[in-house]
Amino acid sequence: METVNLPRLLLAAPASGSGKTTVSCAILRALVKRGMRVASFKSGPDYIDPMFHRSAVGAAYSSNLDLYLGDRETVCRLLADASKTELAVIEGAMGLYDGLAGKSIEASAYDLARVTKTPTILVINGRGMAASIAAMVNGFKSFRSDSGIIGVILNQLSPSIYPEVQELIERECAVDVFGYLPPMPDCGFESRHLGLVTAREISRLREKLDRLAEQAEQTIDLDRLISAAQSASTLIYQPLAIEPVEGTPRIAVAHDAAFSFYYADSLALLQLLGAELVWFSPLADRSIPFDCDGLLLGGGYPELHAWRLARNRSMQESVRKAIESGMPTIAECGGFLYLHRTLEDRRRIPHRMVGLIQAAGYKTDQLSRFGYVELTAKQDNLLCPRGGTFRAHEFHYWESGDCGDGFSAQKPMRDVHWDCVHTTERLYAGFPHLYLAGDPPAARRFLNAALEYRKEQGRWTEA
Fold this sequence. Notes:
By secondary structure, this protein is an alpha/beta fold. Helix 1 (20-33) packs parallel to helix 2, helix 1 (20-33) packs across helix 7 and helix 5 runs parallel beside helix 6. Helices cover 30% and strands 26% of the residues. Strands 4-3-5-2-6-7-8 form a seven-stranded parallel sheet, sandwiched between helices. The chain has a six-stranded mixed sheet with strand order 14-12-15-17-27-26. The chain has a five-stranded antiparallel sheet with strand order 25-24-21-22-28, with no helix packed on it. The model has no long low-confidence stretch (mean pLDDT 92).
């Protein structure tokens, strides 16, 4: 075991919609504008909030921390990876105590703060409340004796009543109030069917972030926040001991406006195992990169770009031929839909796709099978042998006429299960998103298959 000193805070809330992302980005951007090198993390499996964090923070470290997809050792190690920064801000997911299956605190933001020994700041939407805020704070503090709550930031609060509310909370709750953000309707982040829009799509994003940062400098006590972060105890972690595969597999990674959902730590693990990641665009490029040994088709918004994807027939043909030739392929959610015969856009107009899976991807009006799942393999496959298990998550409004049957999926703590995922010894294609950072053996198996494919193609050279 090793130790590192990393000043850190977790920003949590009573519920989703309290403004955690807005407050997190305001603080991160304000600290960066002060010249600090800061890191940002998101509790849970969310892809999109870390994009906001990277836009707010610039080149500093940004990642996910997930106690279901990973474990205690994984999250502590990933947090320790940010030790070269001056301060880390972790944004919680949902409500502070909301964990697995809606009936457990396991894998909640509270659980993450407890495991990593991170002080917690409660972000409360103060609109329409006054003294009731104090009751809420006391309730959250007392729900668990080790809540870790050391203070509060108020969001959407009128400047005229802030002094009174601050005095009330500090008197009744024995916690610090670190400041507030007033209503700032022009700095909101638009929504769409998968939640927040991606950071690259927000109009005048940097202007909005700078305005939030300027407001934070005026109404949030950043110096006291920094001191609170510096009070965090020493972080204890186990470094990752891993041997690279015997070769340098070249992995083609789809990345553009249609495919952008990747966990940074999963990609970093592939590189640590010896992979070379080669980026390409299914929207703009004519084919997958030359001399690649494996293929990653991540999640994203292919339904929003279905017309352009359909027009790029040469790319579709390249992808289909590569997979049919045995190229090891992981296609998750949006990448899975891209492999279908057709895919409906938002207006329910079908567009021709790769055609590897002879089914239609179609729009629904509600989330399908939302949340964490545990997958159990029904046959040997690209990522694990028969009977092997790993954890994943789903989040999609589009559905498939053929979800596959290579795995059995089980909701944690619930008697809900179904079959899913198209699998072969060279293919994983399904809705569940993988977190390879939490399952290094699956990542190694994928890369070893890529090296075998290279040999079959006559391109093997000794390392």
